[in-house]
Amino acid sequence: MRVAFDACGYRPEEFTQVLASLMIDFEVNKSNVDLRLMEGVKAKLESNKNGFKHVYNALPPIQAAVLSVAALMGEDYAPYTSATRQQYEEICTALTTEKVNVENSQIQYALESLRDMSLMWKSERGAYRIEDEQLATWLIENRPKRIT
User: Fold this and answer.
1) pLDDT, tens digit (0-9, with 9 covering 90-100), for 122-147
2) Do residue 123 and residue 75 come from a single domain?
3) How many whole angstroms separate alpha carbon 95 and alpha carbon 111?
């Protein structure tokens, strides 16, 4: 069970949903419960990935860039440095195929919008982080691009 909970990103709500589906599965028994649990977790993670793809592709380029750079930088994420801004511009250019200049006001608006969508959060000391570790992992694995 610990492996399944770990695979859910330590998120009780994800794990609880998988467990709830097992409770109504009449084919679950002592000999296959671990296998069925892991199958449920894998299905849930795949569903989450499809949701991430949908959300990411619907974001304006600057919001997609901010989210992507935050994932790639992890705890070192500093939204307003010139190096970070350059990464935003590169991602926006890749997403739109046009040269994009990113201003601090656009970054701030993107961060606030991502917070409103519960995709990012801001600590009391002002550090921004991605809300869902599964999303951050997915972004790192898929690198910034429109996902098909």
Assistant:
1) 999 899 999 988 889 889 988 765 54
2) yes
3) 18
